[in-house]
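Hello forum,

I keep getting stuck at the same step: I have a sequence, I want structure tokens, and every attempt I make locally crashes halfway through. Rather than fight my setup again tonight, could one of you with a working pipeline run this one for me? It's a single chain of 842 residues.
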Amino acid sequence: MLCPSNLPGAEPQAPLSILQELRSFRELGSVLYVAAHPDDENTQLIAYLARGRSYRTAYLSVTRGDGGQNVLGPEFGEELGVIRTQELLAARRIDGGRQFFTRAIDFGFSKDYRETLSIWDREQVVADIVRVIRTFRPDVMITRFSPQPGGTHGHHTASAVLAIEAFKLAGDPKAFPEQLGELRPWQPKRILINAGNFGRNAETENNTAVHLEVGGTDPVLGESFTDIATQSRAMHKTQGFDNFRGFGGRGARAESFQLLAGELATNDILDGVDATWGRFAGGAPIAEMADQIVAKFDTNDPAASLSTLLALRSRLGALAADPLVSEKQRQLDHIIQSCLGLTIETVVPEAEVVPGDVLKLRHEVKLRHELKVPQWHEVKAQQSAVPVRWLAVRYPSIKKEIAINLDLHPNEAATHETTQILPATTPLTRPYWLKEEHPPGMYRVDDAALIGQPENPPAFPVEHVFAIGDQTLVIPDEAVAARAEKVPAGKTLGSEKRRPLEVIAPVALRFASEVRLFAPGAARPVEVEVTSYRPGVAGTLALQAPAGWQVAPASEPFRLGAVGQHTRLAFTVTAPPQAATAAIKAIADIKGARFENEHIEIRYPHIPTQLLQPAARIEVVSLELAVRGHQVGYVPGAGDNVAESLEEMGYEVSKLTGPDLTPARLRGLDAVVIGIRAFNVRTDLPAQLPALFDYVKSGGTVIEQYNRPTTNHLAPFELEISNDRVTDENAAVTFLAPDHPALNTPNKITSADFAGWVQERGLYFPNHWDEHFTPLIACNDPGESPKKGGLLVARYGEGYFVYTGLAWFRQLPAGVPGAYRLFANLVSLGKSSRGSEDGGSK
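Reply #2:
Ran it on my machine without issues. Output:
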């Protein structure tokens, strides 16, 4: 099975790319690279193996990077994992590799691989790696990291430990036998560690290193593998790598490898592997024919190779059944399609459809007369004398085939229009790994065939059947909607100009906020916005609340006319009389069908638009919360939702830019809060710090959230930020200054306020600071000394300056009660009491 991002699609290739694909068809060597996260992969090595040696090369990222930070926007957690999945696919399109994943969740930084394996389901992750091995069938596996614990991320070490386990089990038919209905056991010859860089301190059973020169130039692109690797790595833009230039010069570059398990290699990583067609009985003639086609291939006339390619296809079809042979058959079909200049497209009027909709499909196929080569030099392709006939169109998901029977002629489009019904039982489009509720460490995937794959299969797949000469080719396609951009004459609609068909609900639901705060026993309104995605939608909306929470009324009717019309429905929610946290869901009933989804689109220019339709839910929190002050200024950083959390606490929040940090603008603000990593991603702040410090000196309060280590002077006193962090969200907290106002006013903070935190205590704590700062708390991960830099408060003039590495950006949107109480105290520093105000008194 091919990785979906690399399936031969509707778009043929330029002549030089066809030649590269022919070289790839000729080579049967394969390598699977394994590491923990997006950006862990060695893109230089992947580019060299995939493009230089034409090997089947793939990267298995154990996680999707869900637990990291995002320098581009407010998406964290599952949404960030969706973005980073697409960033990896964009990287692979550049370096030529394929992409796989396991179901393991990146739950944030882990200092010990044993902690990692206590949160991941070890057997499930090993099973997933085994599944990828049996699917991709690599000759050699390579890990990025050592299996020996060291000074690196626990996920890194765990990825190597589990890769070795999977290597030893993949060839055993007794291991994970449930996979063997669709797959076969497969044993790679060896597993190596890519020593040097991250893996330089690897300790292996045999320290004999194999060195591989990975420099050179891509024969198609004319670029060095170093430049290609740099461009690939730069796709990790949410991690700040968009301007990555870290691979050094373009000359010789060597990688070294050490054996972890399997057969020893002495000269090359594929020592002892038959990377030719000779590995198959009857494969020698395939190799000879492929060599001849490569030697005689004319980039000015790709169609001249058609007759020999079809003969090669007949020979290939005579080989015994094998997954790799089947993959090569699909690859050869794509080569033939490209040599014909055969373009295929299935267009629908709208990208978003509702189950039960009528699909208006327009199929168009064309034999292109003119082909393009790099640098856009035009060459004229002689049309092949091989007849091409469009036989049929198939719709596999509804098990239907339509006969076409049209002869194709050069440069003449052939079209067919039809309508089909999208079954009412069609599931909504969601990333497959996000469809089910799951525990903290592992995604739940009910369809085992999807495990390992980077993204969903097409929502409405299409197959076109052609007779080319005396052979039948089936070419996969999918329904897409053309975007508004004008396509130049003579050019085919590229992937960047179209959006795949996606299945949506007739309405989308959205709560007015992520979190709602209640005083114990208090009642507050909760609003849900209902938006129509189909005209004339009517139904009822209800809130599903757990025991102890009361909702009135039981349901509310709605009726919406035009697409895009929305209405807000209000419910009164009453909290239990005691402290409690819960989640409330919204559910719409439309003619007996239930829908509970939001409609979220993630748009960044470097990846395709991503549609998420998670369950619409709100975190509700019953707590004792008092606040002081009224007006708060918020300076956004890399992206978070803390400003919205402040509004839910009862503050009026004004968003501020660097130029806004003037005495006149700051006057009247009770506090100024600076967003996460603001000084890492913005250039308009350092020059305004004197004005901000003057504001503090005059009696204001500034709360500065975490930044990565920086040379900027971020505080009115000396402050050095380090890489210190506390990853255990349940780490015991010691109060270092129990009488400090920040721990007592207006809310009395106790150890209970540090219960229920998510992912981590905090990150990038300062490790040196001026004596004017008072550290308020200490905490630490197991086996480490206490870290005291998570919350520092200094008096400066009449006001307070706070620097905090605590992960407010995770705790507040998650509805952690103690985080709200403590953050309210920080905002309230120096403010006189205006009465005990709870979160329900807005």
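The radius of gyration is 30 Å. If your local run keeps crashing, start a new thread with the error log.
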